[in-house]
Specification:
The complex is a heterodimer of chains A (about 450) and B (about 375). With about 450 residues, chain A is α/β, with parallel strands linked by helices. Chain A has three domains: about 160 residues, 3-Layer(bba) Sandwich (FAD/NAD(P)-binding domain), CATH 3.50.50.60; about 140 residues, FAD/NAD(P)-binding domain, CATH 3.50.50; about 70 residues, Orthogonal Bundle (Arc Repressor Mutant, subunit A), CATH 1.10.10. In chain A, about 35% of the residues lie in helices and about 20% in strands. In chain A, helix 1 packs parallel to helix 7 and helix 7 runs antiparallel to helix 8. The two termini of chain A are about 15 Å apart. Chain B is an alpha+beta fold and about 375 residues long. Chain B has two domains: about 160 residues, 3-Layer(bba) Sandwich (FAD/NAD(P)-binding domain), CATH 3.50.50.60; about 170 residues, D-Amino Acid Oxidase, subunit A, domain 2 (D-Amino Acid Oxidase, Chain A, domain 2), CATH 3.30.9. Chain B has ten helices and 17 strands. In chain B, strands 3, 4, 5, 6, 11, 12, 13, 14 and 15 form a nine-stranded mixed beta sheet that branches. A five-stranded mixed beta sheet of chain B has the order 2-1-10-17-16. The two termini of chain B are about 25 Å apart. The chains are: A alpha/beta (about 450), B alpha+beta (about 375). At the A-B interface, helix 10, strand 20 and helix 13 of A face helix 5, helix 9 and strand 15 of B.
Chain lengths: ~450, ~375
């Protein structure tokens, strides 16, 4: 394998924009994507034989431009190739899942464009098979064109719930209800800020219009408290703004409580030449600003990486100005979707509520760690509590375990999610046979 | 009394002092088990020890684990199981035979196994294994779990994030009377340094201690394969790797490979490891990990389809002559040290903690500490 100047991790809009920009500037580029298809969460391409998901004319135009960039520069993305991290010797480790082998690669710079990670707050029953994330459900539909059979409930908070509900409705499969912890209609003043962002406003209007036509209830200022299996279905318990509890019976629950940068298990940024490869992050993986910003930020990151390795000039000002605009839109959305009432602290959940889904570790298991004279720190919570130690390596729980621990041990420094997950490779579990294929390095 | 270092040795020392009714402060630069203790393989084992003081002390170390478990102190944390020494070629078979004889001579329960018996006991092992010996009554304990339990049992509140800058001594007598720390001066009737790599500067022993790195791997759960291994599998090559310990024959290269495959109670496997001189950071690299995995696949082929979950490394403090440093520091009344156990800290930690506690209480330590006496480095050293 020839080592490229630039290794780009992630084939969404940020990664593709970065790869194309760098190749246009004359750099050699390798673009890797873990999934079988490019596109990221928004532009996810379908598998063979499936019609692309309608994403609107504006979205189609942006994807066509990214695709044209790849064709023009001759970049052939490596699909089904996962980035495992940087090892202690500074090698970038790539797992080729087609060949079943791990390769060590030595690029001069790496752009991390791994997108966003969906937040899902723990609540009783959230770990049950059949409970999915809204983003996960959406990506599955985009890849396979299929919608699961039965009654679907969307719950949590954030604009994605409305978008997904609108898309399901457009496909003739409206959800039973959308349960939203915020009360966007009361945030009128904040909502006026969206007038400056007609793209977001128009999108919301389309989805809300569809939901109204199909009479899908949008239960605002309401939280989903618990999910209990009932036969092959679920009974979910809701609590509204007045504290009244109601139950619903559904077949599928899709949860979503916002998104945050996916830096899980990934190396920290490195802008110091000579201290291993340059590492720059881009897109939602750096700061969640959405699909339009991701492209802009990808270009910015490519400029930055090339400036650091070759001293090339950066066209920062225009990129930063356009990013600032997207940042404003996200800030307005965050205000509109702020929870109507403070959410219950995690440690007040019933003791048998699962926090770590992989190893079945509960709220009660976490509390036990804080009963003695000695308050454990982040890594001890991980090791002695066995949190963030399972197959997902803390992707689902580290954030929440850190948040609850900070409240359970208020006198100790608040643990960071990274204290629990660590940043050692492999960032994802890797078959031993694939890793054993890494040869002894030639002496450098 | 003040203990510096909340690894397994320092915490054990504090535990046994508290148990004797002594008031103790435990200061720690980072957090309990933050360094070598938290990155160990957990072997409470005599199987790989060199004949002599280490073999005898390890045997006593295992006995103490058994006692503490029977008393309920380490209940649920220490598990007895055998270690299987295995050889795949003539050179390894020869080392295995010699070593099994040495273990038997020092009173360890060890039995050579026929191939038939081995297959029956350990169906997950490869047919390439041609010689094996079962070392009985060995055990496994996870360092950070032991530390956490002893802290809780002793009711200790570890003073975290307190870096010790210097020892404070009486200018007239030279007696150590306390510590200067980032959190101010701490007066002490006696000080115990159990600070691993941080001990060297405090003791003025920088030429005596060195860091050796060990890389380790953890797999996902694979219960069926796990059930086919009745205990830890130790390649006879591990014994060859240990022979490159400092003080023994000079190592040909900076990195030695041994191999232990330990079936954990969770259904996972712990696989290690390397012994590397002069490593600055406790990180892992793909080259070493792939090397270890290729060796592991030769012994347990079924691991091929199992996924690797984590890699980690410990920087273990070793003494240049291969023996730990335990006892009173010569010329420094009021100062004791216990460090330099390299890869044997989990096995020896509780025993050495109890020994130091007993020394401080004016009692017989109960084990022969003479081979580990810091006075052996007295000549021409700052510690004098």
């Amino acid at each position: 394998m020839t080592d490229p100047d630039l290794l780009v991790i992630g084939g969404g809009p940020a990664g593709i924009a970065a790869a194309v920009r760098a190749a246009d500037a004359g750099a050699s580029v390798m673009l890797v994507e873990m999934r079988p298809a490019l596109g990221g969460a928004f532009h996810r391409r379908p598998i063979e034989g499936v019609e692309p998901w309608p994403i609107g004319r504006e979205g189609e135009r942006r994807w066509a431009r990214l695709d044209e960039g790849l064709v023009r520069t001759g970049i052939v993305p490596r699909l089904r190739t996962a980035f495992l991290g940087l090892d202690g010797a500074g090698a970038a480790l790539l797992e080729d899942r087609v060949a079943g082998r791990v390769e060590a690669c030595h690029p001069r710079a790496i752009i991390l464009a791994t997108g966003a990670l969906e937040s899902v707050r723990p609540r009783p029953g959230w770990h049950r098979p059949g409970v999915v994330t809204a983003g996960g459900l959406q990506v599955m539909m985009k890849e396979t064109g299929r919608i699961p059979e039965g009654r679907i409930l969307l719950a949590g908070s954030g604009p994605l719930l409305i978008a997904l509900a609108g898309q399901l409705t457009a496909r003739g499969r409206p959800p039973v209800a959308v349960v939203e912890a915020a009360d966007p209609f009361t945030e009128m003043v904040a909502g006026l800020g969206l007038l400056a962002h007609p793209r977001h406003l128009a999108e919301a209007a389309v989805h809300l219009g569809r939901l109204a036509l199909a009479r899908v209830p949008w239960r605002r200022a309401t939280v989903l408290e618990a999910i209990t299996p009932k036969g092959d279905a679920f009974e979910v318990r809701l609590r509204d703004r007045r504290g009244r509890r109601t139950t619903l019976e559904v077949d599928h629950v899709a949860l979503h409580d916002g998104i945050r940068p996916n830096d899980h298990g990934l190396p920290a940024a490195n802008e110091t030449p000579g201290a291993g490869p340059i590492v720059v992050s881009a897109g939602d993986g750096r700061e969640v600003l959405g699909v339009v910003a991701a492209e802009i930020d990808g270009e910015r990151a490519a400029d930055r990486a090339l400036a650091l390795i070759d001293g090339r000039p950066e066209a920062t000002r225009d990129h930063l100005r356009r990013l600032a605009r997207e940042r404003h839109a996200q800030a307005v959305l965050a205000r509109v979707f702020a929870p109507a009432r403070p959410l219950d602290p995690l440690e007040t959940l019933p003791d048998d509520t699962v926090l770590c889904r992989c190893e079945g570790r509960t709220v009660g298991d976490l509390k036990v760690l804080f009963t003695g004279a000695d308050t454990p720190a982040g890594r001890e919570i991980k090791l002695t509590g066995r949190f963030a130690m399972g197959l997902c390596q803390g992707r689902f729980c580290a954030h929440w375990v850190a948040e609850a621990s900070a409240r359970l041990g208020p006198d100790a420094p608040a643990p960071r999610p990274r204290d629990l997950t660590g940043d050692r490779w492999p960032a994802r579990p890797v078959p031993i046979a694939a890793l054993a294929a890494v040869p002894d390095a030639p002496k450098r | 009394m003040v203990i510096v270092g909340a690894g397994i040795v320092g915490v054990s020392t504090a535990y046994f002092l508290k148990r004797a009714g002594v008031s103790v402060r435990l200061v720690e630069a980072r957090a309990p088990a933050a360094a070598a203790t938290g990155a160990a393989d957990g072997a409470v084992s005599v199987a790989s020890k060199r004949p002599g003081p280490m073999m005898a002390t390890a045997t006593a170390g295992i006995r103490l684990y058994r006692e503490l478990t029977a008393e309920g102190v380490l209940d649920g944390l220490f598990f007895t199981r055998s270690t299987f020494l295995v050889a795949v070629d003539d050179a390894e078979a020869e080392v295995l035979a010699t070593h099994a004889a040495a273990l038997a001579a020092s009173g360890v329960s060890v039995e050579r196994l026929t191939n038939e018996r081995l297959r029956a006991l350990a169906p997950s092992l490869s047919a390439d294994v041609r010689a094996a010996a079962e070392v009985r009554e060995e055990g496994h304990a996870i360092g950070y779990e032991i530390v956490r339990r002893l802290i809780a049992r002793a009711g200790l509140a570890v003073e975290r994030g307190v870096r010790v800058d210097a020892l404070v001594a009486d200018p007239r007598t030279g007696r150590v009377t306390g510590l200067d720390t980032g959190a101010g001066r701490i007066e002490a009737e006696a000080v115990v340094i159990a600070a691993g790599g941080g001990s060297a500067d405090l003791l003025g022993l920088s030429g005596v201690l060195r860091a050796r790195r060990g890389q380790l791997l953890v797999t996902e759960r694979a219960p069926a394969l796990n059930a086919g291994l009745p205990g830890a599998i130790m390649s006879a090559r591990y014994l060859l790797s240990k022979a490159s310990a400092p003080g023994a024959a000079p190592a040909a290269s900076a990195r030695g490979y041994g191999l232990v495959i330990d079936p954990l109670r969770t259904g996972q496997f712990l696989v290690g490891g390397t012994r590397e001189n002069d490593a600055a950071r406790p990180d892992t690299d793909a080259e070493a990990v792939a090397h270890i995995l290729r060796d592991a696949l030769r012994l347990v082929p079924g691991l091929a389809s199992v996924r690797l979950l984590r890699t980690f490394a410990g920087l273990r403090t070793a003494v240049v002559d291969g023996l730990p440093l335990v006892g009173a520091v010569p010329g420094r009344a009021g100062l004791h040290v216990a460090t330099g156990f390299e890869g044997d800290g989990i096995c020896l930690g509780p025993l050495m903690g109890r020994s130091i506690a007993r020394l401080l209480l004016g009692e017989d330590p109960g084990v022969d500490l003479a081979p580990f006496d810091p006075a052996r480095f007295r000549e021409g050293r700052a510690a004098a």
